[in-house]
Amino acid sequence: MKLLMCLNCNDVFSLDMYEKGCSCGRSKGKYINQQLAEYTGEFALPLGFTNSSLIQAIKHQPNEGMGKEFTAFVIPKNCETFFKRF
Ligand SMILES: [Zn+2]
């Protein structure tokens, strides 16, 4: 699952097939197809969630105590499936 974080306003949002943007309007992105996504903005940081780990964390959501961790990662600057459009 691809997401975008704006380092200017700290919004984190998932992408869709239509362009979505952050609160301050400086980071935008969208999916081009099932695999490819693009983003723009000097403050835009591409993020990924490992889907399988998120699904497991949702399934095993604790009733109390510590939260259930899942894997999130910062996507490399050069990524063939999630790239920056200038
Ligand atoms: Zn922003």
Short structural summary:
By secondary structure, the protein is mainly β.
Characterization of the model:
It is built from one helix and eight strands. It is mainly beta and 86 residues long. The protein has one domain. The radius of gyration is 14 Å and the shape is globular. The chain starts with a strand and ends with a strand. The model has no long low-confidence stretch (mean pLDDT 97). Bound molecules: zinc ion. Residues 6, 8-9, 11, 22-24, 26-27 line the site of zinc ion.
Write the layout of secondary structure elements.
Blueprint lengths: L1 E5 L5 E3 L5 E2 L6 E4 L5 E4 L3 E6 L1 H9 L12 E3 L7 E3 L2
Parallel strand pairs: 5-8
Antiparallel strand pairs: 1-2, 1-6, 3-4, 4-5, 6-7
The protein binds zinc ion.
Bound molecules: zinc ion
Number of helices: 1
Span between termini = 22 Å
Quote the beta fraction. Answer: 25-35%
Average pLDDT level: 97
Key words describing this protein structure:
4-stranded antiparallel beta sheet; single chain; mainly beta; globular; about 10% helix; about 90 residues; binds zinc ion; 4-stranded mixed beta sheet; 8 strands
